[in-house]
Amino acid sequence: MAKEPAFSLSGLSIWIDGRQFPGSNDYWDANWLNLRVQMQAEGATVKCSGAILMTTDFERFRSDLRELHKNLKGYAQLAGHEPELKLILTAEQLGQINVAVEVTPDHLSQFHRFELGLDQSYLPGLLHSLDRILVEFPVLHAEN
């Protein structure tokens, strides 16, 4: 298990422990990632783990984040088919970035939302983290 998170942002840490089905050639099975997620803020720590996101979710987030960084408008969202994690960065005036993190280990009985404020200077580091993730865990396509 990795000691340092693959992705971190102001209290949110995401560790990638590998593919859920290593060696699979099926598009859906091959691209699921086993994650450990932790969000810490004053007075609260929320954790969840499992096959929460796919490589394609990180790829889409990186693409959206590049556009947000380039234009400083719009939003970028890291979310998948599973309800445990959602991260939304929204560009505001003067380079400010609003961040909403939703994380829960049990979506049927809990809901945790954290709101943070950052500025555009965080975006290059986030993009670099996403590049590293996608080099280590590229999107795999089904064999034809």
Index terms:
alpha+beta, Secreted effector protein pipB2 fold, four-stranded antiparallel sheet, 24% helix, 41% strand
Description:
With 144 residues, the chain is of the alpha+beta class. The protein has one domain (7-136): Secreted effector protein pipB2 fold (2-Layer Sandwich). Helix content is 24%, strand content 41%. The chain contains 3 helices and 8 strands, in the order ββαββαββββα. The chain has helices spanning 27-30, 55-71, 123-136; strands at residues 7-9, 12-19, 32-41, 44-54, 75-79, 85-91, 96-103, 113-119. The strands form 2 sheets. A 4-stranded antiparallel sheet has the order 1-2-3-4. A 4-stranded antiparallel sheet has the order 5-6-7-8. The longest helix is centred in the middle third of the chain and has 17 residues, at 55-71. It is globular.
The whole-angstrom Rg is 15 Å
Quaternary structure state of the chains depicted:
single chain
CATH architecture type: 2-Layer Sandwich
Terminal CA distance reads 33 Å
User: Would you report the number of β strands?
Assistant: 8
CATH class: Alpha Beta
Separate helix tally: 3
Helicity, as a percent range: 10-25%
Q: Enumerate the strands of the largest sheet in spatial order, edge to edge or round the barrel.
A: 1-2-3-4
Strand fraction: 35-45%
Q: What's the average pLDDT?
A: 95
CATH topology value: Secreted effector protein pipB2 fold
Which outline best applies? Answer: globular
Q: What structural class should be given to the helix and strand makeup?
A: alpha+beta
> Which series of helices and strands comes N to C?
EEHEEHEEEEH
> How many structural domains?
1
Give the low-pLDDT segments: none
- Report the major sheet: 4 strands, antiparallel
